[in-house]
Each structure stands twice: as structure tokens, then as C-alpha cells.
Design brief:
The protein has about 280 residues and is an alpha/beta fold. It has one domain: Rossmann fold. The longest helix has 14 residues. It is globular, with a radius of gyration of 19 Å. It starts with a helix and ends in a 17-residue tail after the last helix. About 40% of the residues are buried. It binds adenosine-5'-triphosphate. Adenosine-5'-triphosphate binds next to α3 and α9.
Length: about 280
């Protein structure tokens, strides 16, 4: 294995428990890819989940909307290459334009800049059947070849789990922090800990946890029904010493914004009151 591969992303903790500890002579190597020369990005925030289907894309877009409503310049990199959902949420169906200098992200109605594989495909319904290294290469290009312009925040919607693409993003992009999205189910503790453990090993701060599908509010009596059972997110967050940023119900109003492709007008009252 190449020296860079061995050391890049090693944290002090992972070095301490590594089989090569004490004998490893290699120095840490910065594997970050160069940002496109027409980009200036102040903060990169990854949105991760230990498993699929927890509403990670919805939380990514909600965080982007929250910062956009505060007046920040915001971008979303849809790194969920095989399951891209961000452009549709914002009603974007055009193709991104490329120039000699790079690719221009598409702009949503609220000014959010978006790049996704769906904005590069002739047919947005065509499946992406690419092997891991090709997908990882595309994600890197979203950083090196996309002309993001001046952004205060770039949110990266990661594919679920702790596989190849999250690893590429963590190694190639200067990620300032991650937000973990989860749902209140049996396996949640184990799954959140996996996502948390990966960020820690990569030396990336965990900014907090968002619980989605926490409850459903009865439209008649207002009672909160815990469809997936009682939440344990507060205990898990306390155990990991990270804040809970929000608990989101399954909300038909939010689902409708997505369905109508009008997320650029969406407000998510369940994710407010914190700084990123
Ligand atoms: N709190 C919520 N209220 C209403 N609808 C929601 C909520 N959370 C997610 N949804 C809807 O559920 C669907 C799946 O959400 P989303 O695409 O964000 O999941 P995901 O975690 O990104 O999926 P995957 O990880 O498998 O790619 C979307 O149609 C989304 O609009």
C-alpha cells in the first residue's frame, strides 16, 4: 500500500490502536484535492447517516435553506451519486453548463447553487451503474471542476453508510464538520456510533445529530404518535458528547414541498436555533 494511503486520514486515536503503531515512520500527507480556482468556500459541512432512508437529503436541504434564509451564500453538493434527490426537490431539471474553466452549478430559485450527477445526465431517470472508483472520481470533480463562486457554506449530501464515497469526501475535501441524521429505531445507537466513529477517525468534528421521523402529530387532537417507538437520541448524544440539533416529525407540509419541487420556499421549523 502506498505511504499516502496508509497515513492519510489517520487520527491520533487511530494511530494509537494501529498495528503499525511505533514502527510507522510515515508522515501525515494532505490528500485534499485542490478547489476549483473559481471557487471560494468558507465552510464545508457533510451530512451523513449510518444507513439509508432516514431523510438525509431532506435534512441537507433544510440546513441549506436555514443558512440561505439568514442571508448566506449556500451551495449543495449532491454526493449521493446513485440516489440523487436534491435537484428535483428544488425543481431543477436542466443540464449544468460546462466551460473551459469548469462546470457551472445550477442555481435554484432561492439562489442556492447545486451540483448533482442528475444535472450532468441527458436523461435524469437513467440509472447510474458505475463502480466505486468512478463514483469517487465524480465526487472529487464536484470539488475540483465545479466553479462554485463565493460560498459561505457548502453542504455535502453524502450517500448513506461508511463506504467508499464518504471516505473519498472526507479525504479529498476539507470538511469542517458533519451532521449525523438518524431515525428512532432499535439499531440507532449502533448506527449513529458507526457514523460518529468514522468522522472521529478522519479527525472531523461532529457538529450534532438530527433525529428525523421522531413522531407524527395527529391532525385532529395534536397528540404526538411515536411511530418508531421511543427516542433514545438524547442519551446517545450525551454519551457521544454532541448536541441534538433537532427532532423532526413526519410532516405532510414538508413532504408536500418536496413533492411540488418547491424546496426553495421551504421552511423547516424543527431545525432552527443553532449555528453551524
Ligand atoms: N420529516 C419528514 N417529513 C415528511 N417527509 C419526509 C421527512 N423526511 C423525509 N421525508 C421524505 O421522505 C423521502 C426520503 O427522504 P430523503 O430523500 O431525504 O432520504 P435519504 O435519507 O436521503 O435517503 P437515502 O439515504 O436512502 O438516500 C423524501 O421524499 C422526503 O421528502
Amino acid at each position: 500500500m502506498a505511504e499516502e494511503q496508509k497515513t492519510a486520514g489517520c487520527s491520533e486515536e487511530s494511530c494509537a490502536s494501529c498495528a503499525s503503531a511505533g514502527t510507522c515512520t510515515s508522515k501525515k500527507v494532505d490528500m485534499h484535492e485542490p478547489m476549483n480556482m473559481y471557487s471560494s468556500i468558507k465552510k464545508v459541512i457533510g451530512v451523513v447517516s449510518g444507513k439509508g432512508g432516514v431523510g438525509k437529503s431532506l435534512v441537507t436541504a433544510s440546513l441549506a435553506r436555514m443558512m440561505r434564509a439568514k442571508g448566506y451564500n449556500v451551495g449543495i453538493m449532491d454526493a449521493d451519486i446513485t440516489g440523487p434527490s436534491i435537484p428535483k426537490m428544488y425543481g431543477l431539471h436542466e443540464m449544468a453548463v460546462g466551460t473551459e474553466q469548469g462546470i457551472l452549478p445550477c442555481e435554484a430559485a432561492d439562489g442556492t447553487k447545486i451540483m448533482s450527477v442528475n444535472l450532468l445526465l441527458e436523461d435524469e431517470e437513467a440509472p447510474v451503474i458505475w463502480r466505486g472508483p468512478v463514483i469517487a472520481g465524480v465526487v472529487k470533480q464536484f470539488w475540483t471542476d465545479v466553479m462554485w463562486g463565493d460560498l459561505d457554506y457548502l453542504f455535502v449530501d453524502m450517500p448513506p453508510g461508511t463506504g467508499d464515497v464518504p471516505l473519498t469526501v472526507f479525504q479529498s475535501l476539507p470538511v469542517d464538520g458533519v451532521v449525523i441524521v438518524t431515525s428512532p429505531q432499535d439499531l440507532v445507537q449502533m448506527i449513529v456510533k458507526k457514523a460518529y466513529g468514522m468522522a472521529k477517525q478522519m479527525n472531523i468534528p461532529v457538529l450534532g445529530i438530527v433525529e428525523n421521523y421522531s413522531y407524527v402529530k395527529c391532525p385532529d387532537c395534536g397528540k404526538e404518535i411515536k411511530v418508531f417507538g421511543e427516542s433514545h437520541i438524547d442519551e446517545i448524544a450525551a454519551d457521544l458528547n454532541v448536541p441534538v440539533l433537532g427532532k423532526m416529525p413526519l410532516d405532510p407540509a414538508i413532504a408536500q414541498m418536496v413533492e411540488e419541487e418547491k424546496f426553495s420556499e421551504a421552511e423547516n421549523p424543527y431545525l432552527e436555533g443553532f449555528e453551524l
